[in-house]
Specification:
9-stranded mixed sheet; homodimer; 13 helices; 17 strands; about 15% strand; alpha/beta
Chain lengths: ~425, ~425
């Protein structure tokens, strides 16, 4: 049964009956792509613009459901801190970030297998800034960076802006980035950095098994290539525990770990962080050179929220809900889409990767969905080499019964598109 | 009398009796420096660290007096918006910034002689980010940038981080950057950008006369070199009106105008802005690639504050106070410091540039001041070519009678140091 994809074993949780349909083997390739410059066409910019359109139900963009964020708690805390300590809230904060917040981030990292002091943490404006500062420390325009394939389109937009070239490493829905392909890439090309979302990958939902994380860290260290780890979704686990980060296996500061609270607490606070390892001083300088420091009040709010211990409880509740929504959406897609559709089976986060039958044009589906008032994320945006044209990413954070008609409509569109 | 420096004419304001001592002719040079890489020694980093030390009275760092900021108003507004609209306050904002805020910024720019639409404005995390994004669009590491001399040390730190070289243009306390020297620099070196604080220069306090601004804009346009204008202090005018920006004379989008609310409303909100002219799309992309968007709530707070029209009243009150403090501090310095000391006569902002008698070691004075519980900014930090070792910048924002003993002590120290 397990091999047929109808049930699955989850570590320490027994067997689960699955919706019909096997796990997606989206990519069977084990070879890296050839290096290429990143040049986005208008589609990705349109997707990023549509992601902010309040008139479109966000079934594509990876935005959390506001109802699963502790907004009222954060709001009250914000008012309270602004009242108790307006002078501090309105003045420049330390460029590397509020010390109390850095201490909370360091404490939380213990659970992910990582021991760092608050002085090794730099607070940033979201995870994206952590990655941007890191990449700018590691590369010059024209340099080559190894990325997962498919890869979050926001990264590709950053890489294009920074004038970087990519080499795409096939990424599997179960185990993540293909290490054999990466090894081949590192041995044949002057790669300056490897970027990966190893826990609950966006868009695949995969979690790289711990043993493979260790091998990845060793491989990068041996080759002298920095590993930039994006752990944005690491806290939203469908399993009993928070997974370890690759940084846990780092011995020489070669892994740069980036994260944020945008997916779990509030995107608009723009609070992320970076543990830059051997790049610490350079990332610190670059943060100050870029915008002196992050806004003060959001840092104070998060430091207090984390110190009071409500975050774990909140995460358990939100993760349970996202798991249910993800399972529900997966079953619905397999029911509503044409036969031959394959859907990833995430272990965390809240995105689903859907492979539609060959020949389906996801861009066409995207246009039609927008006309019907909702957005999806077409697969072509997740690569700079014209891959994944029959794939889409769906945002399971919004997967409540009220979106069922949209998903069913999507299924009908896809059937139409194929005729 | 005017020539002797004992009285001065102020446009539309009659004559003012001055404290003894002439205006500082800090620089008599009219030639640009030779191009050189920016390499800060530990001193500048220490100054920047000390600027955030709550145990030191900030008589050097250019921080506004919290008592002259409308903190209570901002605080109430923050609570109110977070209560009325928590969902919007906590979600991602448009990468280019909240539309209502961009509209208010465009409206305000009319007063400074500049007509732009909200779509031509990009909101940033402070003025520093506006400058950083602009410089990153204009230059590659190793490129040459023309800067004022003396120049705000925070810029130098950014330029060092970005791997840029500078050519220093002598800047005069009355008229600002020497255009003849700039012309020579542009005709003999491959300069990629000119950066200037033209209104109420930091640290000189000078305001470049309108006719010179026009010539500067024309010169840069003729040479095809971008002019990056920092108008951070432009709203704090000691004269009747807000001065025009150089951008007002721009015909082809070659001037990139940057500003913020950090000096007039609250540094910790980290809200600045950029009117990037011909770089608009590139700055927009780079903003998104750097940190997706700025924090949402601070933008909502400022948009509302500006829309309600209290800003002009607040500015008049704060500017009047800063003018009094600047005049008072100037007179006190001339009284307390050794004879031969020269002090700038700012027309806006809140910093004073003090030239002590030749041979005085400002770094030594800086160390001694720190031991006494207050900070000053030594002149050597304002250049990357070992100039201004006998100069200091003072922060007049904190110049109330309670700091008189510190300034008198400073005078004694300087006399000691010279012995």
């Amino acid at each position: 049964l397990e091999n047929s994809g109808l049930i699955e074993a989850r570590p320490q949780s027994g067997y689960y009956v699955l919706a019909r349909g096997p796990v997606v083997p989206t990519s069977r390739a084990v070879e890296p792509s050839t290096p290429q410059p990143v040049t986005l066409d208008g589609v990705t910019r349109r997707i990023m613009r549509d992601a902010r359109d309040p008139h479109l139900v966000p079934l594509g963009p990876a935005v959390p459901d506001p109802e699963l964020l502790p907004l009222e708690n954060l709001r009250r805390r914000m008012s309270s801190i602004a009242r108790r300590n307006p002078e501090r809230a309105m003045r420049y904060e330390d460029p590397v970030g509020l010390r109390e917040l850095r201490a909370e981030i360091a404490r939380r990292l213990i659970t992910a297998g990582c021991a760092v002091t608050p002085d090794e943490v730099v607070v940033t404006n979201g995870c994206n800034e952590a990655l941007a500062l890191t990449l700018q420390c590691l590369t010059q325009p024209g340099d080559l960076v190894a990325v997962e394939s498919p890869m979050y389109y926001g990264f590709l937009a950053s890489l294009e802006t920074f004038g970087l070239r990519t080499i795409e490493i096939p990424t599997l829905p179960e185990s993540g980035m293909c290490l054999e392909a990466l090894e081949l890439a590192l041995s044949t090309h002057p790669v300056k950095a490897v970027i990966g979302i190893l826990n609950f990958n966006n868009p695949m939902g995969s979690r790289m098994p711990e043993e493979r994380k260790r091998r990845l860290v060793e491989l990068c260290a041996q080759r002298g290539v920095a590993l930039v780890e994006d752990n944005l979704y690491g806290d939203i686990s469908f399993e009993k525990r928070i997974p370890e980060v690759a940084k846990a296996f780092d011995r020489d500061g070669n892994v740069i770990l980036c994260g944020s609270f945008s997916k779990t607490l509030a995107p608009g606070l723009r609070v992320g962080w970076c543990v830059p390892g051997r790049l610490l001083e350079r990332v610190q300088s670059r943060k100050m050179a870029t915008n002196i420091s992050s806004a003060t009040l959001p840092q104070m709010v998060l430091a207090e929220f984390l110190a009071e211990g409500g975050y774990d409880h909140h995460l358990r509740r939100a993760s349970r809900e996202y798991r249910q929504r993800t399972d529900w959406l997966r079953a619905l897609v397999l029911d509503a889409f044409p036969s031959g559709t394959r859907v990833s089976r995430p272990l965390g986060g809240f995105v689903l990767w859907v492979e539609m039958p060959p020949g389906t044009d996801a861009l066409d589906v995207y246009d039609k969905a927008a006309q019907c008032g909702f957005s999806i994320a077409p697969g072509c945006a997740f690569s700079s080499s014209n891959k994944f044209s029959n794939c889409i990413r769906l945002n399971a954070a919004y997967a409540t019964p009220k979106v069922e008609p949209m998903i069913r409509k999507l299924g009908m569109m896809i059937k139409d598109v194929r005729i």
